[in-house]
Amino acid sequence: MRGIRWAAAAAVYFVLTCGLATAQTTLRIGLAEDPDVLDPTLARTYVGRIVFASFCDKLFDIDQNLNVVPQLALSHSTSADGKTVTIKLRPGVKFHDGEPFNAEAAKFSIDRHTSMTGSFRKPELAAVDHVDVVDPLTINVVLKAPYSPLIAQFTDRAGMMVSPKAAKEAGDKFGLRPVCAGPYKFVERVQQDRIVFEKFTDYWNKDNVHIDRVVFLPIVDSTVRLANLKSGALDLIERVLATDIKSVREDKALKLATALELGYQGLDINVGNGGQAKNPLGQSAKVRQALELAIDRDALNQVVFNGEFKPGNQWVSPENPYYQQAYPVPKRDVAKANTLMKEAGVSTPFDVDFMVPKGAETQAVAEVIQAMAGEIGINMKIRVTEFATSLKQAEQGNYQAYLLAWSGRTDPDGNTYIFFKCNAPQNSMGYCNADVDKLLDEARVPSELVARKAIYEKLTKTILEDVPKIYLYHRRILIAHTTKLDGYKQMPDGLVRVVGLSLK
Amino acid sequence: MADITVNTKLIPAKDVPETLLRRAMRRLFRRKSAVLGLAIVAFFIALAIFAPLLSPYDPVAQSWTLVRQPSSASHWFGTDDLGRDILVRVIYGARASLLAGIISVGIALSIGVPLGLAAGYLGGFLDSLIGRMTDAMLACPFLILAIALAAFLGPSLGNAMIAIGVTATPIFVRLTRGQVLAVKMEDYVEAARAVGNPRWRIVFVHILPNIMPALLVQATLSIAAAIIAEAALSFLGLGQQPPEPSWGSMLNSAQRFLVNAPWMAVWPGLAIFVTVLSFNLVGDGLRDALDPREVGRS
Amino acid sequence: MLNLLGKRLLQLIPTLFFVSVIIFSLQQLLPGDPALIMAGEERDPAVIEQIRHQYHLDRPIPVQYLYWVKGVLSGNLGESMRIHVPVLDLILQKLPVTIQLGSMAIVIALVIGISAGIISAIKKNTIWDYAANAFALWGISTPNFWLGIMLIFLFSVKLGWLPASGYVPLTEDWRASLASTIMPAFVLGNAIAAILMRHTRSAMLQVLESDYVRTARAKGLYERTVILKHAMRNALTPVITLGALEFGTLLSGAVLTEQIFTIPGFGKLIIDAVFNRDYAVVQGVVLVTATVYIVLNLLADIAYVLVNPRLRT
Predict the structure, then answer these.
(1) Is the peptide bond before B243 cis (omega within 30 degrees of 0)?
(2) Is the Cβ–Cβ distance between A97 and A114 less than 8 Å?
(3) pLDDT in tens, A370-407
(4) Which residues of A touch C51 (CB under 8 A)?
(5) CA A5 to centroid of chain Cα atoms
(6) Between 20 and 30 A from A70 (CA), which of A115, A137, B109, C261?
(7) DSSP state of A426
């Protein structure tokens, strides 16, 4: 008799949970790599930011036109001397563990970014001197020197807020069970297999969150990722290959969402980093200009990417508000290139050590450039190098040309300062120009676009003449998703925003 | 890598009347799969040597209007993602792959055999030392060792060959040592020692020629494995550098186009398969032919 | 007997020492600076210095080696620089996956290898011999990554029968779990099948011509009985032991196969760690797997000696 009651109870329980289970919607997202640690202070990968977007809200966010919009903060204002930034916070926000979000928590999070051992946010917030709590919903960020890109930094990991209670308890193990204030909260992670999140019922914007669970699955091979999407095993995938676009568009069950990236793909030229700079390409700006003119960006885009990407010649894409219209993308001009080579007085042909990080499409791009450069007497000798090795070799100046990409930042300062300033960490070209340094610092002072753009115009002119970098093209962020997913719009920063989405 | 130890004792070549050797060759040729294998290997070697004469196109010439074309009259295997003719690249790729196979095994032989001879003949502490190091190398995953070495030496076909050769060495050390131990106690070796031959002479003149057959068999099988290893390293970007083709690097580029242009993956993959299978068939055939159990029969 | 066992156990120590030295120095040989890679896109020098100090990368190499060995001997295999998870935890997490994949691969290898070997030996020098031969050799004649890609293309993209990637644990859904592992297991097992086929064939040939089989035939027993009862029993024992030993080959093959099929096992763990210069992970995993391999070999050797008294001298 007891047995029957047990069975009945089990049956009821079973039916209930089954019922509940079937009502749950899950968004399965295919990533191109396994993210590193899920701690916004210690994280360093691009793919990690995609995951953060679903569970860790920031002070501010951006919209499609790169304007700053409120998220956990409502507004900001800068003092007249540019050294104090006042930020007003959103009331009624809770962390995943129930702790309240307030000025103390904001100060704690920013301090954690600037001072924790091993923090990767330190360079981003290097200008911050300290943070003051003005009242429970207002903080003052006091800077060492005016730094207008600060708000842009707060739209990324540096602006992510963590629960002080959880962070204090976990220390540097916070990433194993992160507690933030985003639309979803962390459930579990199996390394290289999946990361699972479920809806946070006390989210400040919970009315716009319609999907119950989000699961991230890292799948490295792009063909396999796409195959999973087509078969219905995934709902959304990132980094679709340009050559797969046609296949996605032809599939009635899939949709493509794109946006032009914030970054760029380009060619670094060793102009002053060690002995390798002493070659005709590194020594003469005319030769570099010739190389730039010998490259047919349109053909490159067509051959390798089916014309899907956008040729570019500056550190921001032609659609970016900071793009200098006075310097448009040049068309290929072999005649002019040859003239420049003659003017430079170099004897052709000569070899160039061309370091190319291993990658599906980078190799094809390198081979096309090699063919084009060959026509004006420059022999680019391709050396496919593992990414890890290429970083070290670039730092040591162990290359003459280096094909590389930059994922891009919302603020143009993020695409220029660390690359062109003398001895800056990403300045592996060994480029050093005092005027450029001055311009870079000047551009950090004003906060309005017009004033900064005028300064950047002078910078653009100089860079285009000195050519320490040749900008080639801008990728499109290519996200493919099932038509069952409603409401998805792609932003230029490549992140997958889950608020406002619904699954049929 | 294929793990093979030949346990049977092989009859020393010099003691075998010539007719026996001819009998072995006859037996090899009777085994049809080995003959087929030999023929195919010879074909690919000829392809590699005469590549320029056989190719209507330049293997690295890009053609931006003919990107990813399927098979046609002018391009029998189609074109790849930069418009290059695949048939020609497969022919030239034979050079890289065959060279990789043969030179890697050459390196493994030149390091492994002397070490094996020393370990087997001299014994004692040297034997133990070499033995433990060999065991240790065999316990590590071969591909990881090869990747690390190739990355360290720098990505190039030559360095990939060195990396594969070094990681293939332990197999030859073990094989040689085993063979030396088996042959050491034979009468003719005892005789040579009794007569007062110096050790090096005994090893190189009396022992080495008689263990050649076993080494030859393993070498053939290792070439097969080395070609596959080169493909794996090139697939990871650590082997043949662009734009020169190798079958492995062609597979690497083809991966993205599996759905759009499957012919890019099919032909180099098939080339590897046929070549490696042939080497394996020849190796197996050689082992059968040189098997002393067969020597008595005909 | 005990003498032999003792001697072999003693040999374990220098072998493991060499393994640790090999794998440690290979990591050091790898060009590139793990601190640079861990330092994120901005690569701030202060952050890099911090990382170097935290993971003892600023100490001379022999000192780093000693730090590592000290850790290993006290049960601490270090921590992944990339995701801050202890290596031991990562290994334990992936062990069930690797065991499942490995066992399936070996079963497939045994089935293919042994049957091909038997057929090849019985029907020597006929078309069946060559066919069985070629079928088994297929496994080591194709690069496993290419075979994997082709299988995905056929069974997932074109036919839609099997999932293209991912792993479902056995405990969660055994049917889906088998579906997700059958293709990679086949790719892995294929390679080992060839080796097993060779040994089976060779052993079968040896046995088929041996005296007691001749005697059995002379007694007038049916050919099939002769083969099944006498030949196979004697030929197969060493082959099955060999199958278990091919665990080492499995890991090498798994490195690329798991990458293609996105199976979160040891292979993928190692290859990702090598490319991210996550030293501790590579060292820890290789040390563990090498130890298991060496111990298995030792057990197999003991088994051989136990079974075959003639080898005891």
Answers:
(1) yes
(2) no
(3) 999 999 999 999 988 888 788 888 988 999 999 988 98
(4) 118
(5) 58
(6) A115
(7) T
